[in-house]
Amino acid sequence: MERYHARMPETPQPAEAPPASPTPEGLPPPVRPDGAAPPEHPHPRAHALLLAVLAACLLFGVWGAWTVSNGSGRGDDAALRAEIEGLRQEVATLARSDQVSRDANQDLQGTLAERDEEISALRADVAFYERLVGSTSQRRGLTVHGLRLQSQGEGAWHFTATLTQTLNRAAVSSGSLTVAVEGSRNDSLERLAWTDLRQLEDAPGVEYSFKYFQQVEGDLMLPADFKPLRVIVRLAPPRGAAVEESFTWAEAVAATPRSAPDA
């Protein structure tokens, strides 16, 4: 018995398309068997041009963003600098105004101090005149009513002695004034005479001449190692006995100035 081997029918394979022949320039592209046109491939030059355009756009966008960012930063920096400069000018103006106010206040304080000193001196003058010519004042002969000492530096002192005479108001008191200072030096008591204080041998006294009162002024020089304690003022009229009045150094230095005119 013969055996037959059944064989499957072979499926026909599609025939391979013949290689496409190059299409000459100017001719239409070949048509596929199914009737569809083959896909077009971009030209290399067009592809390069497209990439160049894209790169240019990207660069332009980056440049624009950088320009906008940099311009905005510069604007903000300029505005900040202008604000800082304005604040500096305002601080300088306020500092000058404060200094002007301080100077004006200092001048005002100095003026007020001068006015207080003048008022104190005027009050002292009023009291002086009341004691001198008041209805209840006692009449006295030639006397030293007050003494004031002012330091001139380096041992130099300026003195102002107020002399009065109310016993004989019609008479004129005249003569010379000298000063002596008592103190200590090298733990020893010492008295400096007028010639020592003037640093001149046979130094003449300060002349005075008045009816009611007069302020007599002069200068003294103390040794550097001398400590003054008391001042003696001596009035020597041409006739009659000399008059002496003593004052402590402390009270003479602290005395209030008087502006009584010569009379």
What do you see in this structure?
Among the domains are: 80-137; 138-253, Immunoglobulin-like (Sandwich), CATH 2.60.40. It has 3 helices and 8 strands. A hairpin with a 2-residue loop joins β3 and β4 (188-192). Strands 3, 4, 5, 7 and 8 form a 5-stranded antiparallel sheet that branches. A 3-stranded antiparallel sheet has the order 1-2-6. The relative contact order is 0.10. It has helices at 44-133, 194-198, 249-253, and strands at 143-153, 156-164, 173-185, 188-192, 206-210, 213-221, 227-236, 243-248. The radius of gyration is 60 Å and the shape is rod-shaped. The chain crosses the membrane at residues 48-66. Keywords: Membrane, Transmembrane, Transmembrane helix. Pfam families: DUF6776. InterPro entries: DUF6776 (IPR046703).
Secondary structure layout:
Elements: H1 44-133, E1 143-153, E2 156-164, E3 173-185, E4 188-192, H2 194-198, E5 206-210, E6 213-221, E7 227-236, E8 243-248, H3 249-253
Q: What structural category do the secondary elements indicate?
A: alpha+beta
Report strand %. Answer: 25-35%
- What string gives the helices and strands in order? HEEEEHEEEEH
Coarse morphology? rod-shaped
Oligomeric composition of the shown chains: single chain
- Count of β-strands: 8
Biggest sheet features: 5 strands, antiparallel
Radius of gyration: 60 Å
Helix content: 25-40%
Mean pLDDT: 78
User: Can you identify the CATH class of the domain at 138-253?
Assistant: Mainly Beta
**Count of alpha and pi helical runs:** 3
Enumerate the spans where pLDDT stays under 50 for 5 or more consecutive residues: 1-6, 259-263
